[in-house]
Amino acid sequence: MLKEKMLKKTGCPSIQELIQTPGFPRKKDYMKGPIAFIECIEEIPCNPCESACPKGAITVGSPITNLPVLHADKCAGCGLCIAVCPGLAIYVKDYTYSDDEAVISFPYEYYPLPEEGQEVIMVNRMGEQVCRGTVIKVNNSKRNNKTPIISAVFDKRHFDEVVSIKRIT
């Protein structure tokens, strides 16, 4: 157990807290291709991610307050779990996208939405600028129930830090 919980102090979990959860993939897992990252560290009654995954790659089980468990060997990185998470705590990253770039797909509930091809600022968990990126897809389909999924490419040297983009104004 961690001596100090960053979520309670800063509003976002530390990487050390996340690594200790069963929903956060290990390096050997994300080196194989796109995979879900579940940043859920609070034991709350919630399980839409489990129901959304067609591969059974996420389980919560009983009681419903269990932390979600990512079965990395089953995750195809489809991203169906992203929009169903009411806590916006799931994103998909692909370290294998190209030799120099990685991709992240994440929920974005602000307006205006970014546009495909738009250059954006990639940020870390604290909302601090990490690097520049480019939006490659804006998925605003009905299936996402009004939670657009943005996909952006960025320099893979920042793979561990990037979790979203700076809000477009």
Automatic annotation (TrEMBL):
Coiled coil: none
Source organism, top-level taxon: Bacteria
Leader sequence segment: none
Iron-sulfur keyword on record: yes
Domain 4Fe-4S ferredoxin-type: 31-63, 66-95
A Pfam family of this chain: Fer4_7
GO molecular function, one term: metal ion binding
Keywords from the UniProt entry: Iron, Iron-sulfur, Metal-binding
InterPro entries according to UniProt: 4Fe4S_Fe-S-bd (IPR017896), 4Fe4S_Fe_S_CS (IPR017900)
PANTHER family: FERREDOXIN SUBUNIT OF PYRUVATE:FLAVODOXIN OXIDOREDUCTASE-RELATED (PTHR43122), IRON-SULFUR-BINDING PROTEIN (PTHR43122:SF1)
Record's protein name: Electron transport complex subunit RsxB
